[in-house]
Amino acid sequence: MARRGTLDLFLQQRSDVRLATGGIKWSRRSTAHHHRPLVSHRFVVAMVVARVSLLAAVSLMMGLQLAAPSTAAPASGQDCPTGWEGPHRDICYRLSEDARSWTDAKANGCEALSGGAYLASVTYANKAFLSKQESIIGSDYYWVGLRSGDAEWNSGTAAAEPVDYTNWELVRHQEPSGSRITNDDCVMVTTASAPAEFQPAGSWMDWDCNYQTPAICQVQQNSDGSCSDGWTSVGSDCYAMTEALSFSEAEVACPTKMADARLAAVSDYDTLSAGLDIGTAGYLWIGLRSTPAADGALRWLANGEEVSDTPWKCIKYDEPDSEQMGFEDADCVVVNGLEADDLYQAGAWSDYFCTVEYKYLCALKL
After folding, report:
1. Cα–Cα dist 315/123, whole Å
2. Is the pTM of this model over 0.90?
């Protein structure tokens, strides 16, 4: 990032900032003197005291109390997903767990944390909130959803909103100093742990868009407790049935589709199948292996809870049978779907080779 030190460049930067923010204009209240009758200061004080005394007397007579304005935040209808901060004004925020380029973070990084998530906007309304969240500012720098020169955050997306203020670092680096020609106009925000030359914390810098650093993501709070697009609400969980993968691949894939999602724990198949369209599935990997834990209990992989009901298929085959048959790596559990062979009753469990590719069921707590 080039440093610029001449007065001409500094003035040009100020002009660029005005263009980047859509020509934000500042105004001051006029300082012109208006002629009006002068009122004695003592008279005004006496009138105020008298009025307060009268209100207090009326309050006591009616058995009422004068209450201070409430500073409590509005009640929230639904908490943010696990690992997210907020909600603040119906938006939840999270620092990405890995470093990516700005372009990759915009296209994939936030969406990987939660469906419908975008790079965060930094506005007058949320800047103080973001600066106080230690889990959010846990990196020296973080990408946000802006390119210098744009008049909107997340321009061209459903999360677009006007830039209502800027906080460019103007002392040492005279930001914004980048260029779209050289692809160094993607905006990052600094924190208190950044080097001294990039202080104070909260300063904006435009940087090479290929530089890899964490990003701040935002997602709209589901105040009605609904699931994100592509997920279906059944009971207190959101479910998604996906393409065919091996069991191990499915375990890895669920959290990439939605943060904190895991292979589903299916304890009530009838209720699940009534609320979720699984008519095209013959077999579905679920979050279970047929091998008991060290204490002899069978436990769900997602939460470690002991399995209370085990609807193993036991008419034609006595499941689980991987140990009886002497097969290795054949203890991954599928639930038989509506399109399973007639031999297998829908909703019954079978253990099978973990390398076989079946559709799989992800679940996420609301």
Report:
1. 63
2. no
